[in-house]
Amino acid sequence: MEPTLKSNLYQLGFGISASLSIATAGAWLAWPSAVIPMIEKDGIPMKMTEGEISTMVALMDLGNILSPVPASYLMDKIGRRPTLMSAGVCAIIASAAVMLANGVCLIYAARIFAGFTKGIAYAVLPIYAAEVANTKVRGGLTAVSMVFLTLGTTVDYAIGPHFSYQALNITNAIIPILLLSTIMFFPESVHFLAMKGKHDQALNALAKYRQVKKENAKENGLEAEYQEVSRKVEEDMRDKGRFLDLISTPANKRALMIISLLAFFQRSTGISPIIAYSTSTMPKEGGGLSISEYMIVFSVVHAITAYGVMPLVDRLGRRPLMLFSSLTTGLVTGFIGVYYWMERSGYDVRDIQWIPYAGLVLFAITYGAGAGIIPSTIVGELFPTNIKSYASSVSAIILAAVSFTLNKIFHVVAKSYGAHVMFWSFTAASFLCTLFTYVFLFETKGKTFTEIRDYMAKLCEK
């Protein structure tokens, strides 16, 4: 069925609503950057040691590690939509906890619940979006979430330096409330309804997402599209699906290797510690703006880049964008690392203090152009319906584990050995990602899920 403007706009509306879950995660990612200066300067909400601060930052990723497996079970049991809504509930609990906190325990609990939000959103949204989108906009619709990730970080960067601690927390609570208020107006995933044998509801949902009348299903191509979906789901669901099925066939093993390493490389480029620690590691002057203002610029540029790349995901394709992004991101972090090495080695860097600021903005462009959006697009495309949720949870766990590790060690390594060590490790990861993408990542743009699976099977026969 050829997509119409009306259909694309409706799917975009869904993408915006569902991506509020990612915006919530983005706000909580940037929350430490907004709060750490308050803690260090005024002891708000309380005084904390360096160890407590690094633990506070890292605990979000602990929650992120713990949540994808339950989320994968729930999205196949109760549906994609209610599981995604649970991410909003966790975020509201996190906001309530930091508002009431009078000790580190509630702060830690809040960060873990924020991690639940992130883990659920990253496990569910790529699957949900891929299953409701038509093939012409599937990549772009998944990329919407990355725009909202940066919008979420922008909110906390903008509010943190200029408003109170409680105003920041109230704002963080508003985003998930908007998620819960809007997502209920969009239908459940067509694939999930077909999995449960609810064919009439599934056809209604597909008609809604394609913005055509169910009564004219034969004439408008709705019936043919649903028959293809139903056939593929039925084929996939002959086996109920288990975690071990991720490695049960050569095609599944290859797909698991691709999404796992893409997730590893995505976080190893350094996005998490750059978001969390930039306000405390950047030079105090040299950029022309304050550090907090530069973090706002970073988020805005990142959002604009991700928005601009959205149509290119389905025009140029996933592979060329990933190659460009990983290569240039490696160059940028290497460039920043040189500055921190010179500073650590005792060189006079007063005239080049602009380098980390320029690098930060360039990183927003290069990372947002591919590495930040392509892995989440790919994870919703490579697996059969019966194990998609498991694959998504594996990807989310790897994302969380790498983020947790980097957030925990960044502050310590930067203080003990210099920030250049961390930035050069980001460079090495980016260049390895470029090589991996060139060798293993194949193009999926414009292909149906059936075509992608058939192509994977042929690759494994060679």
UniProtKB/TrEMBL annotation:
GO MF, one annotated term: transmembrane transporter activity
Entry-linked Pfam families: Sugar_tr (PF00083)
Membrane-crossing segments per the record: 12-31, 51-71, 83-101, 107-128, 140-159, 165-186, 255-277, 289-309, 321-342, 354-378, 390-410, 422-442
GO cellular component: plasma membrane
Domain of life: Eukaryota
Keyword vocabulary terms for this entry: Cell membrane, Membrane, Sugar transport, Transmembrane, Transmembrane helix, Transport
UniProt membrane topology term: Multi-pass membrane protein
Protein's cellular compartments: Cell membrane
InterPro entries for the chain: MFS_dom (IPR020846), MFS_sugar_transport-like (IPR005828), MFS_trans_sf (IPR036259), MFS_Trehalose_Transporter (IPR050549), Sugar_transporter_CS (IPR005829)
Domain spans labelled Major facilitator superfamily (MFS) profile: 1-445
Keyword Membrane found: yes
Name used for this protein in its record: Major facilitator superfamily (MFS) profile domain-containing protein
Organism annotation: Cimex lectularius
